[in-house]
Hints:
Blueprint: H1 4-14, H2 20-29, H3 33-46, H4 58-74, H5 76-105, H6 108-111, E1 118-120, E2 128-134, E3 140-144, E4 149-150, E5 154-156, E6 160-163, E7 167-168, E8 175-180, E9 184-189, E10 195-198, E11 202-207, E12 210-211, E13 216-228, E14 240-244, E15 247-251, E16 255-260, E17 266-273, E18 276-280, E19 283-287, E20 291-296, E21 301-306, H7 309-313, E22 319-326, H8 327-338, E23 341-344, E24 353-359, H9 364-373, E25 380-383, E26 386-389
Parallel strand pairs: 1-25, 2-9, 6-9, 7-12, 13-14, 23-26
Antiparallel strand pairs: 2-3, 2-8, 4-5, 5-6, 8-11, 9-10, 10-13, 11-13, 13-16, 14-15, 15-18, 16-17, 17-20, 18-19, 20-21, 22-24, 25-26
Amino acid sequence: MLGKREHELIVKYLTNTITYPEIEELEDWLQDDFNKKVFLDYNRTNYIINHNLKNFDLDKAEKNLRAIIEKEKSKKKVLGINNLNRIMKYAAVLVIALTASYFLLNNSDNNSSVISNTVVDTEIKPGTNKAILELEDGSKVNLEKGELVQTNNAKSNGAEIIYTTKSTTAYKLEYNTLTIPRGGQYFVELSDGTKVWMNSESQLRYPVSFVAGQARKIELVYGEAYFDVSPSSNHNGAEFKVFNSGQEIKVLGTEFNVKAYKEESHIYTTLVEGKVLVSYDDLEQELLPNQQSNINVKSKILMVKTVDVYNEISWKEGVFSFEKKPFKEVMTVLSRWFDMDVTIKNKEIETVLFDGVLGKEQDIDEILTVVKDFGIINNYQIIDKHVVLE
């Protein structure tokens, strides 16, 4: 059986986000013949779009990748980690190229009449670490990759912002607001030690420091965030609560993901570890690990189902992992990360279910080329920051 950690390692391996220690960890796991079979079966059924890969020789692709890694291992001391990352980038591209080539060769009749792609002066780039911090006095500070920022209560290195660990006896709480624009992501560690990973187009409002003995309350104003909450046992039993769009989540110490974008009518809360109590109006539901609550804010209906947690939280690990997601939803996720506008001319493809894994550092042109090669779209155009799919 493929465990959560092995799932994560394989996805990282195929999308150029794996580190050298993780390569060694994956290789140790692959020493077992049964695990090798699980590995190859997973590749066949999950990489890019599974229904088009039934006859693709992923065994060969996997051997090529492993050969590159073995060659790199022998040069590790000479080349260093930067060159390893370069080789792994080539390896990830190799899988995509082999996959696309296979499909093109076996579908030459279908592709003979397809119009060429059009890319005109595109400004679309993968997202990066960036945010806007609004301080307690209302002033705003841009947090960007490579920029060092120091406030009275926190410091940022451009990729994360860390607050001073302390409590206060002040009567009035002071708040900061962290806004992640489209094409951005950011990490924040709150004053109680709670860690929060924030996705594109999201906003979080939180106290600069919490009042000792009182419930710790923060608000996900909109968007998506992953929480690793400092347990109440470290704070004299003080509960941790997350509010968003009318929903309240009570936490004792756990890890969970909340997705609540402004333009969407559903709020999704996915529990990874621990226990949470989700409530909305008169609705209330306790979640167990691997469960996801889905609140329809229009109909006031709450539903719970078991999910593959990694597919829900992979965005914070550097990849997008989709399992039977409508193509329109896939493009919505990509539009936030690449800060681009998307028009789908053929409405029929909006509901096509997509299975696959995409690296967040891949170019949008590369991603769309693969999607086209697999027959989901016939053609695409990229003009400035606008993508048109046909």
